[in-house]
Structures are given as C-alpha cells and as structure tokens.
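Tokens in:
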C-alpha cells in the first residue's frame, strides 16, 4: 500500500465554505467554536467535563446496554460502553443514514475517521478515555436516499412503501434484494463473506435499525465502535427539556435565523429552519409539528394539541417527538459527552449555522471535523497513470481540461495561442494611445476591434485543439476510460461505489489498509494505491 495526500481544495470537489474552514478564514471564524487540532481538543475536553452531568452518563450507559442485548458485543465495545460512566470519558461521533448495505464508500471513511481520531486522542491525552460513536439516523424518513447501493456500475434497490422513521421499517422483502446481489458476487471466499453479512444482517433482523447495527458492528466491533439509536425512550427523556423549550419559544428558529443573516453574506445556506423544528413520530408517519390558530397541529393528520396538552405529551410520550436536521445535532450533544462531530462538507455547512443556537440553550458546541475522503487506485491503474504522465493531482481535473492539457503536452504543434494573444494586445495598447488623442467614438471602435480579434484567435485555438484531440484519439480514449474508472460519473468514487466492490477484491485487508492510512487531523485528501 502506498499513501499520499493532497489538499482537499486541489480536488475541485469541496466548497468555498470548507476551503475557508480548513484555512481558518476570518470570515468563517464566528461560526465555529474550537478548531480540530490538539489545542482545540484540550479546550473542548475541559468545557465538556464541567457541563455533562453524571446522571446523563448513567442513563446513556443503561440505554446502550439494552440496545446491545440482542447483539454479539465485542470486549472492546462493551468496555467502551462501561467507560462512558466515568467523568473522564468523552465521545467522538459521526452520524449516517441507514443506507442499504452501508450505501456509498464514505460510510466507512466516516467511521474509520472516528475510530482513528479516538485512538489518536487517547495517545495525546492519556488521562482521558475516548469512545468512537456511530449515530444511526433511525428517525430519518427520506427512504429514497437510502434504499439502494451501487455495485459494479449496477444499482441494487429495495422497493417498498415509504412512511415513518426508517429505523422502524420491517426488513420484509429484502430476500429479493439478497438474491439479486448474490448473483452479482460469484463464489469466492470474499463473496461468501459478503453474502453472509448481508443475509445475517437483513434476513435475520426484523427492522432496519437492528440490521444496520448488526452490519456496522460486524465490520468495526474489534475497534470498539459504539453504535447508538436515538429512537429510545430513556434518551428522548434527557432531551425533553429542549423539546418543550422549542414548542414554547421556537428558540432554534430565532437563533438560527439570526445566524443565517450573517453567514449568507459570504456562504450559501445549507438548510433553513422551520418555526418549530420537530416532527411528530409514529410507526406509520413522521410529520411536522405546526403552530397555527393557537393550536399545535401534526401536519397531514387530524391530530391537534393545546399548549398545555402538547407539553404534557412531551413529558408522557417522549418517543413521539423527533428532531429535524436543525435540532438533531442538539439531541446528540445533549445526551453524549461529545467533543467532536465528524461529517462531510454538506453536514459541516449546516452545523456552522447552529453555534448561536447551542450557546442560547447552554450546550457546548462541538468541534467540527471534515471526514477523511479517499481515492483508491489499483496498482494497474497507477501504472496506466504513469504511462500517460498523469499525476495524482491531475486525476481530479475537469475531464475537458485534463484532455486538453495532455493532448497539448503530447503534440509536436504549438497549440496554445497565448503568445499570439499577448502580441495582439500589445499592438492594441499602442493603437489605444493614438485613439485617445482623437475622440471617444474612435476609442470605442478600437476596443471593439480588439475584442473581436481576440475572440477570433480563441476560436481558432479551440478548433486547432479539437483537431489535435481527434488526431490523438487513442490517447484521448485511454485517458477518458481511466479517469471514468477512477471518478465514476465525474464524481468522487466515495459517493458512487459500495465497499463490497473493494472487499470482494481485497478482503479484510481493504478495511485494515484504510485503518492504517486515514489521519483525521491531517485535514487532507487521501490517495491509497493498493
């Protein structure tokens, strides 16, 4: 295995928001708390130590033990759950939807980033304990986002009726998906492992939350990963004071709206808050809570509450209140002794909208860490890149730009007209000096002629480049094919492929190589050659 790193910004796949965050731009500093470095973690530990109550730890541990009862819990995971009772134990958390068979590759990268950061902090702060957490988004209701994964360029889908929190969905019907997937895999040792993992997960567990926990636990239990399901009565009871505050005062809407007014001056807004950022949840639906005509109403139902009734409902039926994207981060931070949230660029962007809200409700705002991103290159692909004189950084160029660059460098012709454009512009500089001594209409005519002639040169340059690409069609085809292999659909492969493709080829070494390679605090894009 060979590991190299390049700045996230040089891939062209990360936003200005993330670039400014990684560079600690002054424009973005007001929207985060501590930065993800060792000094930042030192400050975060001290803040969380004094703010997280022992009683919350005891409730958390009790809930986790009950959630893990039906599962084969590793010694390391059981130890980590027990450590959460101690005041010197903190969590590092990532969250993800319950994508079918883990969904895109970056699910693994999120979790391994979380595990590796926990281990690194244990070395840096030996007096403290750090527990990696995977927060399952069991209350999400966007089934269309999670009901498939891609394998070998094919979409493997689970079709069923939508409705309610996905974690409660029955796994009925996944036998058909298993049969389709199995037919793609073959009969190798690694294929048999994947078949067994899928069937044991989805065909022997009744709901999607349990199936997802089984699969994530099987993949990462040896590293002590703790998996949490927030759709839990005891954990929701810890969150009830914040639910009641939201219902009475619409705090999140007011605070996040104020933040947006400042943030949108320089950055796009990822999510917009509702007046009430809570859903009402049952087995069959998850619908917004709306306040109108002096009543709290559950959207698309006939359910209504007076203020007194809904506050009583929050106390007596905490499971019915489900936070949306604005309040879910607060739920997480209210029930975990958490220091850091690890997520992708889109997640980081909406977390940056929440700092003022956290301050208002007096919950420490966590450190935000952009997860590791990875490009896997096989030895064979690396040799092809070398023969084509394509560097690892150049792999991420826009395909048109990459082809143009390589065709030009491989051509015996002088395809760039830059020197001719400069010569032309120099001639017009002299001509403009003469024009200024006449009248303004002549100046305008000279400027128009300059634009026309420069445009003509640009068009000739494009035609020459197009002709040269046609002449070097073999080179163009080879580069196009290779880049499309590495970046399917001209996107990062981590958003397209499922881990099973690499597991089928490399087996357990794929995950152990990732574990060895990912350095969360390096804040760079990782390229692994296998």
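Residues out:
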């Amino acid at each position: 295995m060979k590991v190299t790193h390049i700045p996230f910004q040089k891939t062209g796949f990360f936003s200005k928001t993330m670039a400014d965050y990684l560079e600690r731009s002054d424009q973005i500093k007001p929207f985060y708390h501590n930065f993800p470095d060792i000094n930042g973690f030192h400050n975060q530990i001290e803040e969380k130590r004094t703010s997280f109550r022992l009683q919350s730890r005891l409730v958390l541990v009790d809930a986790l033990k009950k959630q893990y009862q039906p599962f084969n819990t590793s010694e390391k995971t059981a130890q980590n759950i027990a450590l959460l009772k101690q005041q010197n134990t903190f969590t590092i958390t990532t969250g993800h939807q319950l994508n079918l068979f883990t969904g895109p590759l970056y699910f693994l990268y999120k979790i391994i980033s979380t595990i590796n950061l926990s281990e690194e902090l244990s070395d840096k702060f030996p007096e403290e304990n750090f527990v990696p957490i995977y927060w399952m988004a069991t209350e999400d209701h966007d089934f269309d986002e999670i009901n498939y994964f891609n394998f070998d360029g094919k979409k493997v889908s689970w079709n069923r009726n939508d409705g309610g929190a996905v974690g409660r969905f029955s796994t009925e019907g996944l036998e058909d998906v298993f049969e389709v997937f199995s037919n793609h895999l073959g009969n190798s040792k690694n294929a048999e492992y994947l078949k067994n993992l899928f069937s044991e997960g989805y065909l022997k567990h009744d709901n999607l939350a349990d199936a997802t926990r089984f699969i994530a636990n099987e993949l990462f239990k040896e590293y002590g990963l703790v998996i949490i399901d927030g759709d839990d009565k005891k954990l929701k009871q810890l969150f009830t004071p914040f639910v009641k505050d939201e219902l009475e005062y619409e705090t999140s809407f007011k605070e996040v709206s104020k933040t947006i007014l400042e943030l949108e001056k320089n950055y796009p807004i990822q999510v917009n808050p509702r007046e009430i950022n809570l859903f009402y949840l049952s087995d069959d639906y998850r619908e917004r809570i709306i306040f109108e005509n002096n009543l709290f109403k559950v959207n698309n139902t006939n359910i209504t509450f007076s203020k007194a009734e809904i506050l009583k409902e929050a106390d007596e039926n905490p499971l019915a209140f489900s936070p949306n994207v604005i309040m879910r981060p607060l739920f997480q931070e209210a029930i975990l002794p958490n220091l850091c949230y690890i997520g992708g660029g889109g997640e980081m962007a909406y977390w940056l909208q929440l700092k003022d809200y956290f301050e208002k409700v007096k919950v420490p705002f966590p450190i935000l860490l952009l997860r590791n991103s990875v490009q896997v290159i096989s030895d064979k692909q690396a040799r092809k890149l070398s023969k084509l004189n394509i560097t690892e950084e150049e792999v991420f160029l826009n395909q048109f730009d990459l082809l143009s660059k390589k065709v030009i460098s491989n051509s015996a012709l002088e395809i760039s007209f830059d020197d001719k454009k400069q010569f032309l512009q120099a001639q017009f500089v002299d001509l403009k000096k003469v024009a200024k001594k006449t009248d303004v209409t002549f100046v305008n005519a000279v400027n128009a002629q300059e634009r026309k002639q420069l445009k003509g040169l640009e068009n000739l340059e494009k035609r020459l480049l197009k002709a040269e690409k046609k002449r070097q069609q073999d080179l163009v085809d080879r580069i196009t094919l290779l880049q499309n292999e590495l970046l399917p659909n001209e996107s990062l492969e981590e958003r397209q492929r499922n881990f099973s493709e690499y597991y089928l080829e490399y087996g357990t070494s794929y995950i152990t190589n990732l574990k060895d390679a990912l350095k969360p605090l390096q804040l760079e894009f990782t390229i692994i050659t296998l």
